[in-house]
Design brief:
This protein is mostly helical. The chain has one domain. The protein has a two-stranded antiparallel ribbon with strand order 1-2. A hairpin with a 2-residue loop joins strand 1 and strand 2. It is globular and about 35 Å long. 16% of the residues are buried.
Length: 112
């Protein structure tokens, strides 16, 4: 992790080739980041329910319960979306539905 312009920036492992094109939808990347943050907070016990997390954020618990599913996308899908910045035609909420599928089926739904 490095600071750039006062903001932390997460760097991928050196063996991963990262796309230099910044064409990926920033909203999607932000949603994935939030989902992982919410998941970690729930796992650590910082909050006990999704409703508690939603109340802290000032958003609906329905939104949190849908978006948090992005934290369970297959590692191969996350690598392609976040590191390689491969585009998908799916919306954020469509991706939330894909996250409920087995990992082996997810890449086909997201990228084909």
């Amino acid at each position: 992790m490095r600071n750039r312009g006062g903001r932390p920036r997460i760097l991928p492992p050196k063996e991963i080739e990262v796309a230099m094109d910044r064409g990926q939808d920033a909203r999607l990347l932000r949603a994935i980041g939030r989902a992982w943050d919410w998941r970690r907070r729930l796992e650590r016990g910082d909050v006990t329910t999704i409703a508690d997390r939603a109340r802290e954020e000032g958003i609906s618990d329905r939104y949190v319960s849908r978006v948090i599913r992005l934290a369970w996308l297959a590692p191969s899908v996350l690598e392609r979306l976040v590191l390689r910045r491969e585009p998908t035609v799916l919306s954020i909420f469509d991706l939330c539905g894909v996250a409920e599928m087995p990992w082996v089926e997810q890449p086909e739904k997201v990228f084909d």
